[in-house]
Specification:
five-stranded antiparallel sheet, Jelly Rolls, mainly beta, 1 helix
């Protein structure tokens, strides 16, 4: 019998089908379930393209191969095992003087305690009130009592009188590896107006 209940030789589709079913400009609707070995476009060999929303009842895609191209989807296990490297920035910011008293010469009373290990790439200084002269600099930084070498052009410098933001400072030996518990102290020259010294140490974990 064919799928309409007619005799086998009536020319209609048979159930089960015994020849290929080719549909040109044919639409099928309201399937409850469809079980297929393969699914291709109407050429029989091309890939199916989803033009609109692809909605799955169980909200899962399974048995995916590992990706080979940049736009390939990945499984959760592949993503977790190949998580892209992320840069984790870490900054320390501290005051080394009070806000209003003009800075006096020498190592300042306030110290910075390093709360976690990280790599310090550079630093920058800030003043609440700028200095009276040009080229006022953070003269010396010590780590656990030992001076960190700096060369000309590497100091954090307030270039113009009255500047409140310095240039970026660097270290002669390159990045500074800080560890938990390190103590940073700062040496400054005296100035009649410069006050409120803050320094940020920037880097990555």
């Amino acid at each position: 019998m064919d799928i309409f209940g007619n005799s086998k030789n009536s020319g209609f589709l048979k159930n089960p089908l015994d020849t290929d079913l080719q549909a040109n400009n044919f639409n099928a609707y309201n399937f409850t379930e469809v079980h297929l070995d393969e699914l291709h476009d109407n050429s029989g060999t091309g890939k199916i393209v989803v033009h609109e929303e692809f909605n799955m009842t169980n909200k899962r895609i399974t048995n995916m191969a590992d990706p080979t191209a940049s736009k390939d989807a990945v499984t959760l296990s592949y993503y977790e095992n190949n998580f892209p490297a992320q840069i984790q920035y870490n900054d320390l910011f501290a005051s080394f003087t009070d806000e209003t008293t003009p800075i006096s010469v020498g190592f300042q009373n306030l110290q910075l305690f390093v709360p976690r290990s990280f790599t310090c790439t550079d630093y920058q200084a800030f003043l609440s009130t700028g200095a009276t002269a040009n080229n006022y600099v953070v003269a010396q930084i010590r780590l656990n009592g030992v001076t960190i070498p700096q060369s000309a052009g590497q100091y954090a410098e307030f270039v113009n009188a009255g500047d409140k933001v310095s240039t970026t400072g660097y270290f002669t030996a390159g990045d500074l590896n800080l560890v938990t518990g390190d103590i940073i102290t700062v040496y400054m020259n005296a100035d009649t107006t410069a006050s409120g010294l803050k320094i940020v140490f920037r880097g990555t974990i």
